[in-house]
User: Which sequence fits this backbone?
């Protein structure tokens, strides 16, 4: 299970891929799968064996120039390949390292175990790789939604063995947990960037009159005070997410109608979402996976959003959320969110988005990859 060199598993807060791995691995092991985790040294997830090239996560290095960081992923992958060459006890490599993991696996496919590469991102990226990919009959890919694979280049789509929707541990027993009382706020979860549409959400909050809480990092800054302390630091000024925040979102954040609270984790995150009257997803891109969507359902909070990417696959319109294709309709749907029953949201999460469901689906894909045809 190749999680990459960027963050520990599980991560300390933000870390989409690492959270997916941390959700999947315990269920696989419960099903009898032995897992070797390739991550960083301070990962704490219980596994059968570990492989690492770095003692700690290298995420902060992503802010440095390319020529200073381009060796990080190769160093990590070198450790993975060295482990594969030392023993022949690995049946399959499940890779999560963007682009480079796929390319390296394909390059060594003839001399190693079969590989499954999970596509967690926008498949419009890396057109040179995805448009000409050849897995040699041993390396395959899966998506995190059907809509994501539908937009894949033909060469990549030809290597797809299916999709597996993301899961959340919060879905376990979601239909049996007591539900807290709803507050008056609406929440937008996720990293603040143009694709997530926080600027649209903030404008709607002022014009339509609802209280909005933005929860998520701005670039590498997880707390408002950290971003404030960065001031005119050139590294902050050059970060596109910071520019988006300062130019498009911050002018609408007044600390009253619209608040930014930074990254929230654990119980604080769960309480924030569970007491929200709606989780808003004003997407400006084709969201591939939707972790925050399934978390919202598991916490009994209706989803209101634009019907883009995976949202129509995850949300039953009118039953677990309200979707529209028009930005101008979102404010009205926020006010109608009370027509959605929180218990229905939790029941849907318990049925479709538990870690056990995800693990069983991945086992089916593993069988297809290891025994093609």
Assistant:
């Amino acid at each position: 299970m190749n999680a990459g060199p960027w963050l520990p598993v599980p991560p300390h807060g933000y870390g989409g891929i690492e959270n997916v791995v941390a959700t999947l691995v315990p269920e696989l092991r419960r099903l009898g799968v032995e897992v070797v985790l390739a991550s960083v040294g301070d990962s704490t997830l219980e596994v059968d064996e570990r492989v690492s090239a770095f003692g700690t996560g290298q995420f902060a290095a992503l802010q440095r120039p390319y020529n200073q960081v381009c060796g990080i992923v190769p160093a990590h992958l070198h450790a993975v390949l060295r482990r594969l060459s030392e023993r022949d006890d690995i049946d399959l490599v499940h890779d999560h390292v963007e682009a480079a993991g796929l390319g390296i696996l394909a390059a060594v496919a003839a001399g190693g175990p079969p590989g499954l590469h999970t596509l967690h991102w926008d498949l419009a990226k890396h057109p040179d790789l995805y448009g000409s990919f050849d897995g040699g009959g041993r390396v395959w890919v899966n998506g995190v939604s059907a809509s994501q694979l539908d937009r894949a280049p033909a060469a990549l789509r030809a290597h797809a063995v299916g999709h597996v929707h993301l899961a959340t541990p919060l879905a376990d027993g979601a239909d049996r947990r007591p539900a807290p009382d709803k507050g008056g706020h609406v929440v937008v979860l996720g990293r603040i960037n143009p694709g997530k549409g926080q600027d649209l959400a903030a404008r709607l909050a002022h014009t339509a009159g609802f209280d909005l809480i933005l929860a998520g990092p701005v670039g590498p800054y997880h707390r408002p005070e950290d971003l404030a302390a960065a001031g005119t630091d050139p590294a902050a000024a050059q970060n596109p997410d910071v520019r988006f925040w300062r130019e498009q979102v911050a002018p609408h954040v007044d600390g009253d109608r619209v608040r930014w609270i930074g990254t929230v984790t654990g119980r604080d995150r769960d309480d924030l979402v569970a007491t929200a009257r709606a989780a808003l997803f004003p997407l400006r891109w084709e969201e591939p996976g939707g972790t925050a969507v399934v978390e919202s359902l598991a916490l009994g909070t209706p989803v209101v959003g634009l019907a883009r990417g995976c949202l129509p696959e995850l949300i039953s319109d009118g039953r677990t959320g309200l979707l529209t294709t028009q930005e101008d309709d979102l404010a009205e749907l926020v006010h109608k969110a009370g027509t959605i029953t929180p218990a229905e949201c939790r029941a849907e999460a318990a049925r479709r988005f538990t870690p056990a469901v995800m693990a069983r689906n991945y086992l089916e894909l593993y069988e297809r990859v290891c025994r093609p045809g």
Q: What stands out?
A: DSSP finds 17 helices and twelve strands in the chain. The mean pLDDT is 95. The chain has two domains: 16-167+354-370, 171-352.
